[in-house]
Design brief:
This protein is mostly beta strands and 191 residues long. The chain is 0% helix and 21% strand. The protein is built from no helices and 13 strands. The strands form three sheets. A seven-stranded parallel β-sheet has the order 2-4-6-8-9-10-11, with no helix packed on it. It has a four-stranded parallel β-sheet with strand order 1-3-5-7, with no helix packed on it. The N and C termini lie far apart (63 Å).
């Protein structure tokens, strides 16, 4: 069965929790103020798409493909991005809330996170080489055997990253966040 193909479409104020988004390939489409909460977009492919002010919390992402997709001002709570189709996976996040989501074992090099809340996000065994965390809250985010080489965390805050079990070579950190690299040593650090 051939998937439906949608190109250059604009979706506004849609509630896909009530009327499900048709399974298919979406190219150069925009979704504005749409509610996907707790819906299933498994198997869909999104290429060069923009999601603006959408609620995608608890969406099912089994084999969902995101290729050059930008999320802006979106709620993406509790998502399991590790269930996505990993071929050409490329996403960008700006002013989004991704709390309690998981990127477990994903290769998402150079991903941009700007002004995002990433509280309790699981980045375990994730490849974040050259990723940018610009003004992001990483409270209780999990970094375990994570590749953060050349990543930029200079303006990120509330992170705890153990240099002994993560790859942080050439990563950039701001001096105010250095305490987050030393937590496992139980030091008292003063300004």
């Amino acid at each position: 069965m051939q998937s439906a193909y949608f190109e250059d479409q604009q979706y506004q104020n849609e509630n896909f929790g009530v009327t499900p988004l048709p399974m298919g390939n979406y190219e150069n489409c925009s979704f504005t103020n749409c509610n996907f909460s707790d819906s299933d977009i498994s198997g869909c492919t999104f290429i060069d798409c923009h999601f603006n002010e959408c609620n995608l919390s608890l969406v099912h992402l089994n084999k969902t493909a995101f290729r050059q997709v930008k999320f802006m001002n979106c709620k993406l709570l509790g998502l399991h991005f590790e269930n996505c189709n990993t071929f050409s996976l490329e996403m960008e996040f700006e002013k989004c809330s991704l709390n309690l989501s998981s990127f477990y074992q994903l290769k998402i090099k150079s991903t941009q996170f700007r002004d995002c809340s990433l509280q309790e996000v699981d980045f375990s065994q994730c490849d974040l080489t050259s990723a940018t965390f610009d003004n992001c809250d990483l409270s209780l985010a999990i970094f375990d055997n994570t590749i953060l080489e050349k990543a930029d965390l200079r303006t990120a805050y509330h992170y705890q990253i153990n240099p002994e079990n993560n790859h942080i070579r050439k990563a950039k950190f701001g001096s105010t966040g250095l305490a987050g690299l030393l937590m496992q040593y139980d030091l008292d650090i003063y300004n």
